[in-house]
Queue: 3 jobs
Job 1
Amino acid sequence: MNKSVIAIITVVLMIGAAAVFVSAQQRPAPKPPLKVFISVDMEGISGIVHGDQVSPGTAEYADGCAWMVGDVNAAVHGALAAGATEIVVNDSHGSMRNIDPGAIHPKATLISGSPKPLSMMQGIDASFQACILIGYHARAGTEDAILDHTISGSVVRAIRVNGIEMPELGLNAAIAGYYGVPVVLVSGDTAVCRQATEILGKDVVTVAVKEAIGRQAAKLRPLSEAQNLIQAGVKDALNKLVAAKPFKFAAPYRFELDYHISAQADMGAMIPSAKRAGARTLVFTADDYIEGFRTLRAMINIAPAR
Ligand SMILES: [Zn+2]
């Protein structure tokens, strides 16, 4: 190799090194990950007012599923607008196979099917920064609330944790809280939004997509307007994430389960930690919330429908 060739190679290498240096200087700092977990129930989805719309095998079920995907994708769009780097959606209603994998936004990972150990919260862990509850409903025994129930309409009359009667949103927010993840938004009817604020505090963003007139009728927001509100609400909630606090009960956790009938409590009492506190009521205490939640699920699943 002669000297002039070596000189040319040296100059080319120097220019290359300088270019790498400049591009490294100009490259923006990597953004922190924003992992968002979305649990999606069905009774609180925009447009839904009746059990037929959330039950496979009925003429109206397909419409319910389409509306469900509409609300989910609105939440996914809101999360992406806020800079979400990973989004996990857990189908959380009934068979947990309601969301069409072909219709959900391709940036979201779908968890489909049941049973799952954490049920409506399957997939959450400490790596997530925020949790969103879409399509939720009020607890059993709430007036003017679409399809109000708690976990199982045919088995559960009420669930209390540390003396406070809980809707599913509270039981599930405490699972998120167990992993240090705050619930930042809840959507559903006006009744569940009211309960979300009562339990999680005034900072949680709520999106009311309908106002119930009894258990099976509601004044609906137009679907497009409801979905726009969900999208904007999710973006807003994630933008002010720094102020959000995980929801936790104080340990030890005292769970009380009121069944509808005593025959159900007879079955639930087979669970070793259960104590009978009345004809229809079982009580137990757990030091670990997830362990307590799983015991509660077993007590519900073991009981015959009324
Ligand atoms: Zn449901």
Job 2
Amino acid sequence: MTGNLPRPDRRGEPRQVTILGSTGSVGCNTVELLAAAPEEYAVEALVAQRNVQRLAEQARQLRARFAVVADETRYPALKAALAGSGIEAAAGAAAVVEAASRPADWVMAAIVGAAGLAPTLAAVRRGAMVALANKEVLVCAGALVTAEARRNGARLLPVDSEHNAIFQVFDAAQRHAIERIVLTASGGPFRERSRAAMAAVTPAEAVAHPNWRMGAKISVDSATMMNKGLEVIEAHHLFDLESERVEVVVHPQSVVHGLVYYKDGSVLAQLGSPDMRTPIANALGWPDRIAAPSPRLDLAQLARLTFEAPDPERFPALRLARAALVAGGGAPTVLNAANEVAVAAFLDSRIGFLDIADIVERCLEALADRSIGDLDDIRDTDDAARALATRFIGNGARRVAQA
Ligand SMILES: NC(=O)c1ccc[n+]([C@@H]2O[C@H](COP(=O)([O-])OP(=O)(O)OC[C@H]3O[C@@H](n4cnc5c(N)ncnc54)[C@H](OP(=O)(O)O)[C@@H]3O)[C@@H](O)[C@H]2O)c1
């Protein structure tokens, strides 16, 4: 939400857009919305990590000007796939930042992980509207990103469904009347499992989310509930609220996405079917509303919405994320980096499911005193946490934390 007043782009002309991470789950949903209204948008740049086939198809379909693949070894394949199209191709980390720096009014930040920080910052620093799906960017560098957004008049538009929900019902002009916000959590695929049963779950079980179809990393984060922990930190930065005023409630149907409690006792909530095209459309059209093909809610058929408190014993990741937010300094950066490394190791079957939170906790303990000033500090802390998590994984592979 940070930023100056709305800076609608040239009304009546196509909105110039760029997608960072166009080949992923959020990216493909964004491409679908753009393709449904080609006269409304002009696509400046698309960015992927290595999926050149899908990237080239999207670039041709949307007539993008610039297509970038982060993995330099994929450059020849991208060049070949775009031959004859007139679309400029490039590769490597600098080209990813260049894509974000080109003059699009609206940038979807949908790269997964802290790898999205440099290009997202580049878009923020030139004052763009940045639709932020990539929560890790705010977890590892929230103070820096929001300060840069304020300084440069960039507008952060929350895309995470819960934060987009809050964004829609958070009356910023009545901020003094807001008591707290509530993020809902589906509880993930292991909501009802004991810790003993969770010790043996496989990557395939962990990525099979009951309500949402998402990329592998966020699916595992949902299963550990680290996702909700990252979202508490994300909400702290987006809405400028301290940890105690950002609550979490488990809501297995994923229909109510977020709620704002006001001091007169009113509670405003946003509801919708669990379909990312709705929050993406909300950010894509902002400040207007545009059509999205998400299934409409049928309340009578749903019949029942249930809510319950999260269980910190079975899902320690949520507790760790909150502790990192309260500790401040480099703790959220450590939390995020250690989690990224541990989730990748779990997906690779090198550690067990319960080891993820265990490794994050050990990294937080060991790197507790890190302070963060500028981007270099963030990078150093991120590197240190990744190295330490990698060492723990190497030493204790398949150690499997106690149930
Ligand atoms: N999926 C959801 O429903 C959802 C909901 C809320 C928030 N989010 C957040 O949105 C972000 C994206 O999630 P996702 O589920 O869409 O992930 P995903 O399906 O794994 O897609 C990630 C995208 O980022 C690209 N990418 C990965 N590393 C990169 C790098 N170093 N440089 C450039 N591009 C890179 C990938 O390219 P390749 O395809 O070439 O690998 C892909 O386009 C995450 O931060 C997630 O937490 C997602």
Job 3
Amino acid sequence: MISVRADAGRILIGKQLLPQTGKRCQALRLFGQCAIVSDTNVARQYADILKQSLISTGFRPTVITIPAGEKSKTLEQAGAICDRMIAAGLDRQSFVIGLGGGMVGDISGFVAAIYHRGIPHVQIPTTLLGMVDSSIGGKTGVNTHDGKNLIGSVHHPLLVIDDLDVLKTLPPREFNQGFAEIIKHAVIADAKMFRTLQSWGARSPRRPLALQALIKRNIEIKSMIVARDERDRTGERALLNFGHTVGHAIERAGDYRKFLHGEALSLGIVAACGISIRRAGLAPDQRDAIVDLLRQFELPTTLPKNFPREKVFDALKFDKKFEGGKVRFVVSPRIGAAYLTNDVTLDDIREAVEAL
Ligand SMILES: NC(=O)c1ccc[n+]([C@@H]2O[C@H](COP(=O)([O-])OP(=O)(O)OC[C@H]3O[C@@H](n4cnc5c(N)ncnc54)[C@H](O)[C@@H]3O)[C@@H](O)[C@H]2O)c1
Ligand SMILES: [Zn+2]
């Protein structure tokens, strides 16, 4: 097992960690009652192991299961979780454990942020995306009818437990989409990690030792960028949005059904590379290497011929303010570096999407 200090808390990465949760919580002087918030898919597999670990170390857990899927990430659902916690007698001394992917991480963190004006949050991410992205940086929240993550709070987890064993049951598409965020991190900040991923080739990316080191490195990259700009003020944190402007628009154009977030991001990265060639001097062979790496993890790099591209532009305009035809956009001049620029035009983006 390895342990990393990040954000305001500690992150443990290794095998067989879920059954040790009770012991780890004790070590942080947590005690008494807690809520285990999970979704239907994850609870079925892992809630009992977690509950037993907590009971055997003297905690009194209440399991609260919500339906799997992004549709559950609402204010109503957060309210219902709070009601269940009140009914079970949880108080200011209690804490919340989020057991699941980014959806559960976000809503359980939000509940922890508002319950009794804030109680400790422990995250047990069960998706690769959860481990390398959503559990880092402290952003918690829920969606509304008008958009994603419009209501929320910054509330760092006290402890994050990344148990590699839980990834065994993750469906391949869900597993691969985590690599879109990992490749994004490599492109914006770490050329060495980029080469390491290339060398993985056809070897199984599920090898625990390789995954452990990779997850650690991604946590370091994201938390370093977040630490420089926790509240999104200086533009540093915006680098993490590389590929996301077009990615989000594609997600929305596909009604959030056609592509998973990481798949839409993969396409957004390809578009951002095209724009980077034109506006930041990215070498075309570096763009090709990025596209090859995305493909290596079975991520899409072209849009289906009949995909409604005009819906992508509509979504872009909905999402971004184009002041004088320009938008703030993250570009990469070479693998391992990125910066924010105001030079990108709507036409640049249109061209890049048409080329997909
Ligand atoms: N807070 C942040 O900084 C941040 C960053 C990125 C994404 N997010 C949020 O994260 C969410 C996406 O996260 P996600 O991709 O993990 O989605 P998710 O939580 O919806 O999980 C994806 C699917 O996998 C299932 N699943 C999870 N773990 C499993 C396991 N070990 N075995 C079998 N099935 C499993 C889930 O039930 C679900 O059906 C979005 O809500 C997004 O807004 C937040
Ligand atoms: Zn993302």
